[in-house]
Design goal:
The protein has about 625 residues and is α/β, with parallel strands linked by helices. About 30% of the residues lie in helices and about 25% in strands. It is built from 19 helices and 32 strands. Strands 12-11-8-6-7-14-15-25 form an eight-stranded mixed β-sheet, with helices on both faces. The longest helix has 18 residues. It binds adenosine-5'-triphosphate and magnesium ion. Magnesium ion binds next to loops.
Length: about 625
C-alpha cells in the first residue's frame, strides 16, 4: 500500500493515471475517452465520454454476488419500525419506484424534489431518480414552507415526493400541510405530489388530481423492471442546497461519474469499508453527509448501510452503541454537535454495549474541539476518532487522515491532511500570498477540483465562478471560506469561517480559537463566540456559553464566579487579548437544522441588528435566550 505522502503527490502529479485506476472501482457502460477535460476553467469534466449510472453501480451490479446480503437496514426508535432490505429487495423496490416516476412523466434530466423523513422510501426515491436519469433535489424534511418554496422555484421539479409526517421525540411532525403551503407560495409548483402515507397524520388532506398515494401505485408495479439510463459522466445526478449558515443557500450541482468514482475511492482509502461490512452514518438524508455516506458510498461498494430515524438519546443515550453492537458496525460517521449532546449524559451509557466491531468514528460538519475529541476517544476506548473536513460543495472529505492508505498518527483538533486530488493552499486573505507553517490563512484549493466536487451552481454558472473562484484577483483558486493553519508536520487546523474572524485591536482571532479556550473550562458544555463592534478596539469577543450543571449559574454570585473562571481560562489558554468582553450563560445555542451554530444571527443580535434569514434555524427559542441575555446585561 503506498504511503500517504506518495499517494497524495501522485494524485496531483499524475492526475490521469491516479484517477484512471480509481475509475476501475465502478462499472462503465461506455468507457471514457479522457480522464479530465479542463479546457474551460474552472469547470472540470471528469471521465469525458464515459457512460455510467449511479443506481446500476449502487444496486444492480451487486446482484450477482450479494443479492441476499443486507443493503439497507432501517431502524426507527420513533415508530419502532425495523426493516431489512437485501440488495435483491432494494433492486425490486427501486424498480417499482422508477416505474411510478416514469408513469408520472419523469424522464432524463427532469427534477424530482424529495421532502422526506428518514424512511427507506426516501432512498428508493433517490435511487429511482438516478436509475432513470432524473435529478433529485432532496430538501431536509421539516424545513418551513417558505424555504421549501424557494427551493421548488430554483429546481422546478416535475414531481415532489413526500410523506404525511416525520417523527421527532415520539411526536408526529406533519409534513404534508407544509408541502401544500409551499406549492401555494411557489411560482413553479410540481404537477404531482407523491405521498408515502405512514399513517401518522390522520388529519392529512389531499389535493384531487395532484396528490397521489405511493402504496397504491406501488401495488400496481410490483413486477416492474425499468432499465438504467446511461448518463454521460458529467451529466447531473443531483442538486443539493448548502446549509445556509452564512446566508442564501446555493444549489450545488453534482455530476455522475466523478461522484461515483470519488465515493468508491473514499470508502477504501478513508473510511475503510468494503463489501459486506457495515457503516452507520447518523446524519439525515437531507444533508450531503447523508447523500454520500448513508446512501451512495456504502451501496457503491456493496456494504450494508444503517439508516436510523430517531434521536441519539432516546429511548436512552446508549441507543447508538446498541445499534453498533446489534449490527456489527465497523465504521460510524457522526458530527461533533451530536457528540457534545452525548457528553452531557452519564458516561456509563457509553459502556453498556460491546463495541468490539467498531473501528472508526468519523466526525465532520463543524470544528471538533479538543476536549470533545478527547472525551469521546476516552469513552470509546480503542475506536479511532477521525475528524474530517469538507463541504456540501466537495461531496466527500477534503481533509482527513486516510487509514486505508496509511495509519498516520492523529492530532486532536486537526482533520489531518488533504485527501486525493485536493491541492490545498493557505493564502493570505488580503494579498493572496501563499503562507507557510503556523500562519493563518484562507483554505483554498487550486483547481481543477477533484472528481465528486460540485460542477456548478444549478442554473447559474456565473454565480459558481464568482462565488467560489473570485476571492483573489489574478488567482482563480477555489475558496472554502474557511480559515486554517498548517503546522510544521503538515497537519491542518480549521479555525472557522472567514467571516468569523474577530479583529481585536489589530489582532486577528478565529472565533474557534476562543471557543476552544472557553471549552478548556471543564464546566462548559458548549459555547459560541462572536465578534461585536467596539468603538475603541474594532471588535470584542462575546461568549454565549452552556454550562454542564445549570445549578452553577443559578444565582448572581454563581454567574459572577463562573464568568471570572471562564475569563481566567481564556487568559491562560490564549492570552488576555482574546478574553471575551462579556460571557453570557444560556441553556441552548441557536443552530441550523443541520446542527451548525448560527453565529451570523447571534452577532447581529449582539450588535443590535436584525438576525436576518432564519429559515434554517432549529429552535427560534434559542435566539430568544440570546436576546434576553443581552437585554439583562444592558440594564
Ligand atoms: P452555507 O455554505 O450555506 O453557509 P454551510 O457552509 O454550513 O452553509 P455545509 O456545506 O453543510 O454548509 O458545511 C460546510 C462547512 O462546515 C465548512 O465550510 C466548515 O465551515 C464546516 N466544517 C465541516 N467539517 C468541518 C471540520 N471537520 N472542522 C471544521 N469545520 C468543519
Ligand atoms: Mg458553506
Amino acid at each position: 500500500m503506498p504511503k500517504y505522502r506518495e499517494y497524495h503527490q501522485r494524485s496531483l502529479a499524475d492526475r490521469d493515471g491516479f484517477w484512471r485506476e480509481k475509475a476501475a472501482l465502478i462499472d462503465w457502460q461506455t468507457p471514457f475517452s479522457s480522464v479530465l477535460d479542463y479546457s474551460r476553467p474552472p469547470f472540470a469534466r471528469w471521465f469525458v465520454g464515459g457512460r455510467t449510472n449511479l443506481c446500476h453501480n449502487a444496486v444492480d451490479r451487486h446482484l450477482a454476488a450479494r443479492a441476499s446480503q443486507a443493503a439497507l437496514v432501517y431502524l426507527s426508535t420513533e415508530t419502532g419500525d425495523e426493516r431489512r432490505f437485501t440488495y435483491g429487495d432494494l433492486h425490486a423496490e427501486v424498480n417499482r419506484f422508477a416505474a411510478i416516476l416514469k408513469d408520472l412523466g419523469v424522464g432524463h434530466g427532469d427534477r424530482v424534489l424529495v421532502y422526506m423523513p428518514m424512511i427507506p422510501e426516501a432512498v428508493f426515491a433517490m435511487l429511482a431518480c438516478a436509475r432513470i436519469g432524473a435529478i433529485h433535489s432532496v430538501v431536509f424534511g421539516g424545513f418551513a414552507a417558505a424555504s421549501l418554496a424557494t427551493r421548488i422555484d430554483d429546481a422546478k421539479p416535475k414531481v415532489m415526493v413526500t410523506a404525511d409526517a416525520g417523527m421527532r421525540g415520539g411526536k408526529p411532525v406533519p409534513y404534508k400541510h407544509l408541502v401544500d403551503e409551499a406549492c401555494r407560495l411557489a411560482q413553479n409548483p410540481p404537477a404531482h405530489v407523491l405521498i408515502v402515507d405512514r399513517g401518522l397524520d390522520p388529519g392529512m388532506t389531499r389535493v384531487a388530481g395532484r396528490d397521489l398515494d405511493y402504496a397504491q401505485l406501488r401495488a400496481s408495479h410490483m413486477d416492474a423492471t425499468v432499465p438504467c439510463e446511461w448518463l454521460e459522466s458529467s451529466e447531473p445526478s443531483y442538486i443539493l442546497y448548502t446549509s445556509g449558515t452564512t446566508g442564501k443557500p446555493k444549489g450545488v450541482q453534482r455530476d455522475t461519474g466523478g461522484y461515483a468514482v470519488a465515493l468508491a475511492a473514499s470508502m477504501r482509502d478513508i473510511f475503510c469499508v468494503g463489501p459486506g461490512e457495515t457503516m452507520f452514518t447518523t446524519s439525515d438524508i437531507g444533508w450531503v453527509v447523508g447523500h454520500s455516506y448513508i446512501i451512495y458510498a456504502p451501496l457503491l461498494v456493496g456494504a450494508t448501510t444503517i439508516m436510523y430515524e430517531g434521536l441519539p438519546i432516546r429511548p436512552d443515550p446508549a441507543i447508538w452503541w446498541k445499534i453498533v453492537a446489534d449490527h456489527g458496525v465497523k465504521t460510524m460517521f457522526s458530527s461533533p454537535t451530536a457528540i457534545r449532546v452525548l457528553k452531557k449524559q452519564d458516561p456509563a451509557y457509553m459502556k453498556q454495549h460491546d463495541l468490539g466491531s467498531l473501528k472508526y468514528l468519523f466526525l465532520a460538519g463543524e470544528p471538533l474541539d479538543e476536549p470533545t475529541a478527547r472525551w469521546v476517544s476516552d469513552a470509546l476506548g480503542g475506536v479511532a476518532i477521525v475528524d474530517n473536513y469538507w463541504q456540501t460543495e466537495s461531496g466527500w472529505p477534503i481533509l482527513s487522515s486516510l487509514p486505508g492508505v496509511e495509519e498516520t498518527p492523529r492530532k486532536f483538533g486537526s482533520p489531518s491532511f488533504p485527501t486525493a486530488g485536493y491541492d490545498v493552499r493557505l493564502l493570505h486573505d488580503g494579498t493572496g500570498a501563499e503562507l507557510g507553517a503556523n500562519e493563518k490563512g484562507v483554505l483554498t484549493i487550486v483547481p481543477p477540483l477533484p472528481p465528486g466536487c460540485m460542477t456548478t451552481v444549478w442554473g447559474d454558472d456565473e454565480r459558481f465562478v464568482k462565488t467560489y473562484f473570485g476571492t483573489f484577483a489574478d488567482k482563480p483558486v477555489y475558496s472554502t471560506f474557511d480559515w486554517a493553519t498548517r503546522d510544521a508536520d503538515g497537519y491542518y487546523f480549521v479555525l472557522g469561517r472567514t467571516d468569523d474572524v474577530i479583529n481585536v485591536a489589530g489582532h486577528r482571532l478565529g472565533t474557534r480559537e476562543i471557543e476552544e479556550a472557553v471549552q478548556a473550562h471543564s464546566g462548559i458544555a458548549e459555547v459560541a463566540v462572536v465578534g461585536v463592534h467596539d468603538a475603541l478596539k474594532g471588535q470584542v469577543p462575546v461568549a454565549f456559553a452552556v454550562v454542564k450543571d445549570p445549578a452553577r449559574v443559578a444565582t448572581p454570585e454563581g454567574v459572577a464566579r463562573m464568568r471570572k473562571e471562564v475569563m481566567d481560562t481564556v487568559d491562560r489558554e490564549l492570552g488576555a487579548i482574546a478574553r471575551p468582553g462579556a460571557v453570557h450563560f444560556v441553556t441552548l445555542l441557536p443552530k441550523t437544522r443541520s446542527g451548525k451554530l448560527l453565529r451570523r444571527s447571534i452577532q447581529a443580535l449582539a450588535e443590535g441588528r436584525d438576525p436576518g434569514d432564519l429559515t434554517t434555524i432549529e429552535d427560534p427559542g434559542a435566539l430568544e435566550q440570546i436576546r434576553a441575555a443581552l437585554a439583562s446585561t444592558a440594564k
